[in-house]
Amino acid sequence: MADLDPIDTKILRLLQDNADIPNAELADKIGLSPSACLRRVAKLRDTGVIRKTVAVIDPAHIGRPLSAVINLEFHRHGNRYRQDFIRKAGALDAVRQCYVVTGEVTGVLVLHMRDMTEYTELCETLFDVDDNIVWYRTYIVTEVLKDDPGVAI
């Protein structure tokens, strides 16, 4: 874990809310000179605190209105089997998040798809031909109540 001081924390909060904020405006809000602010942001990137800067896109506006969460259970839990599944899941555009978790399931996937045809093809590709998948359950998203990609700081 990185040692973050209150200035770093404030920078992260502001960037998480709006990563497009110009450095001069960010520096002004933080109370630093633009050069000092730029150095701090660069350090946060270099140390991996800021992994990447992205645009958060509404999937429905780009033709991917069908969202789903899938829970699954592996038969074998060894690293080799997990890595094989992660490689296959990572190659599919519809899979936006993939987690190996503790508890009653082994993995959780979050998907954004064009339609049920893409969903069916994905299930055939990812689950039906993999003898390491014991079962999977799909939960189709009917309403988004909160979708905040940020982290509580």
Descriptive report:
This protein has helices at residues 6-17, 23-30, 34-46, 79-90, 116-128, and strands spanning 66-74, 95-100, 107-113, 133-140. By secondary structure, the chain is an alpha+beta fold. The protein has a four-stranded antiparallel β-sheet with strand order 2-3-1-4, covered by helices on one side. Helix 2 packs across helix 3. The two termini are 13 Å apart.
Task: Provide a brief overview of the structure.
Helices cover 38% and strands 20% of the residues. With 153 residues, it is an alpha+beta fold. It folds into two domains: 6-46, Winged helix-like DNA-binding domain superfamily/Winged helix DNA-binding domain (Arc Repressor Mutant, subunit A, Orthogonal Bundle); 59-140, Alpha-Beta Plaits (2-Layer Sandwich), CATH 3.30.70.920.
Properties at a glance:
153 residues; alpha+beta; Arc Repressor Mutant, subunit A; Alpha-Beta Plaits; 2 domains; four-stranded antiparallel beta sheet; 5 helices
Order of helices and strands: HHHEHEEHE
Q: Order of strands in the sheet with the most strands?
A: 2-3-1-4
Q: According to CATH, what is the topology of the largest domain?
A: Alpha-Beta Plaits
In CATH, the architecture of the largest domain is: 2-Layer Sandwich
Report the major sheet. 4 strands, antiparallel
Work out the helix count.
Answer: 5
The top level CATH class name of the largest domain = Alpha Beta
What share of residues are in beta strands? Answer: 15-25%
- Give the structural class: alpha+beta
Low-confidence stretches: none
User: Can you identify the CATH superfamily of the largest domain?
Assistant: Lrp/AsnC effector binding domain/regulation of amino acid metabolism (RAM) domain
Fraction in helix: 25-40%
Rg from alpha-carbon coordinates: 20 Å
Number of domains: 2
